[in-house]
């Protein structure tokens, strides 16, 4: 294109690109050869994401989502789960070596997932709970559901009970009254290892 045509094209292009500027200002910019094109993007409307609603607590109870069928309430079925739990704890505590510091292991066990652990009720304000031993099938905020060697499903409250669990010679005690949390909440909880503890 000729110089005049090119000049006309550039002037028209700048006028269209920068509609707010006057002709004199555009000419001045061309003379100094410093041009910054303005851009007016279209505002995008944000689409609100729909939150997927889960079941309410009432619906879960009605659907019996957490119920264990009677034919599944057998100790032998859950022994592989216990083996997996033992391996999980060994990995978590780096092998449970004899020279490991007990309070460090205790701190990790307090935050660990107990599904699959074999626990025993060692102390209780209700004598009928003492001696119950079995694999933890479910942990809720206030109770443990435990399957015993006699294939009986026991619901043991945490409050007013002391539980013990043993692994590779290391015995840990859990004071249920200080343990009234869901498994998911315990991982972020800071437990005090010192102080007076009552049932």
Automatic annotation (TrEMBL):
User: What is the purpose of this protein?
Assistant: Component of ribonuclease P, a ribonucleoprotein complex that generates mature tRNA molecules by cleaving their 5'-ends.
User: In terms of one coarse class, where is the protein primarily found?
Assistant: nucleus
Q: Where in the cell is it found?
A: Nucleus, Nucleolus
What's this protein's name?
Ribonuclease P protein subunit p29
A Gene Ontology biological process term: rRNA processing
Any Pfam family the entry gives: RNase_P-MRP_p29
Question: Carries keyword Nucleus?
Answer: yes
What does the similarity note say?
Answer: Belongs to the eukaryotic/archaeal RNase P protein component 1 family.
Record keywords: Nucleus, Phosphoprotein, tRNA processing
Query: What PANTHER family does this protein's entry cite?
Result: RIBONUCLEASE P PROTEIN SUBUNIT P29 (PTHR13348:SF0), RIBONUCLEASE P SUBUNIT P29 (PTHR13348)
GO MF annotation terms: ribonuclease P RNA binding
Supply the Gene3D superfamilies for this chain: Ribonuclease P/MRP, subunit p29
The domain of life is: Eukaryota
Task: Name any GO cellular component annotation.
Answer: ribonuclease P complex
Question: May I ask which residue range the UniProt record assigns to the signal sequence?
Answer: none
Subunit structure, briefly? Component of nuclear RNase P and RNase MRP ribonucleoproteins. RNase P consists of a catalytic RNA moiety and 10 different protein chains; POP1, POP4, POP5, POP7, RPP14, RPP21, RPP25, RPP30, RPP38 and RPP40. Within the RNase P complex, POP1, POP7 and RPP25 form the 'finger' subcomplex, POP5, RPP14, RPP40 and homodimeric RPP30 form the 'palm' subcomplex, and RPP21, POP4 and RPP38 form the 'wrist' subcomplex. All subunits of the RNase P complex interact with the catalytic RNA. Several subunits of RNase P are also part of the RNase MRP complex.
Q: Which organism is it from?
A: Callaeas wilsoni
